[in-house]
Amino acid sequence: MRFDILTLFPDFFTSPLSSGLLGKALAKQIATVYLTNPRDFTTDKHHKVDDEPYGGGVGMLMKPEPIFAAIESLPVMPRREVILMTPQGETMNQKMFQSFAAECDQMVLVCGHYEGVDERVLNLVTREVSLGDFVLTCGEIPALTLLNGVIRLLPGTVGKEESLKLESFEAGLLDYPQYTRPAEFRGWKVPDVLLSGNHQAIAEWRKQQQIERTRTRRPDLWEQWQQSQQ
């Protein structure tokens, strides 16, 4: 899969793209990431990418011309999404990541700044996506989150792909508690069932823990899960 990130701060991605599973996936060319700076597509001597909003208001807006020129310079693959990172967009979730991983050949991520982008940029955008109901200083943070969430689902990124099916949100529930050695630490013991060797009992315990944890920590997910069971 190809990712094109439009960003005024390409250096933001230097360390994340070379670290951990993400760095290994890119080294194996499971995915490719290209960084494009809209400032390189300005035509004035000051390379201006923002301006005051018509009608007044606080702050500046990103101008449409550099963004259009930057996106239009990119190759176009058959299954492509042009995504604007904005608090006004659809909130990210695991189902969204799964959809992108399965259905996209190319994702163009537009990182907003200042008070946002000129509304006419939406004529190029196929989807607006948000990290959550809050405002950040830049669109690079949610873009990196989206990038990470999708690439880790691509075949070959995670060593044991079976583990992806057992994670939080995959079955509509939060993950179950997990323990490793030692069996007792500072008076806290690993639940006996996990030491029993009874795989059926362990599976039942884990499922019950998922249900209870979701019910108490995320009532919204709990209600959705109950509806799906019906």
Tell me about this structure.
- The protein has 230 residues and is α/β, with parallel strands linked by helices.
- The strands form three sheets. A five-stranded parallel β-sheet has the order 2-1-6-5-7. It has a two-stranded antiparallel ribbon with strand order 3-4.
- The two termini are 36 Å apart.
- Strand 8 and strand 9 form a beta hairpin.
- The protein has helices at 20-27, 64-72, 94-103, 140-151, 192-195, 199-217, 219-229, and strands at 2-6, 32-36, 50-51, 61-62, 80-91, 106-111, 127-130, 184-185, 188-189.
- The protein folds into two domains: 2-151, SPOUT methyltransferase, trefoil knot domain (Alpha/beta knot); 168-229, tRNA(m1g37)methyltransferase, domain 2 (Trp Operon Repressor, Chain A), CATH 1.10.1270.
- The protein has seven helices and nine strands; from the N terminus they run βαβββαβαββαββααα.
Sheet of most strands: 5 strands, parallel
In total, the number of domains comes to: 2
Distance between the termini: 36 Å
Structural class estimated from helices and strands? alpha/beta
Architecture (CATH level 2) name of the largest domain: 3-Layer(aba) Sandwich
CATH superfamily of the largest domain: SPOUT methyltransferase, trefoil knot domain
Q: Give the strand line-up of the largest sheet.
A: 2-1-6-5-7
Output the radius of gyration: 22 Å
CATH topology of the largest domain: Alpha/beta knot
Integer average pLDDT: 93
Q: In percent, how much strand structure appears in the residues?
A: 15-25%
Strand count: 9
User: Which percent range fits the helix content?
Assistant: 25-40%
What series of H and E elements makes up the topology?
Answer: EHEEEHEHEEHEEHHH
Total number of helical segments? 7
Multimeric state? single chain
- Which CATH top level class of the largest domain fits? Alpha Beta
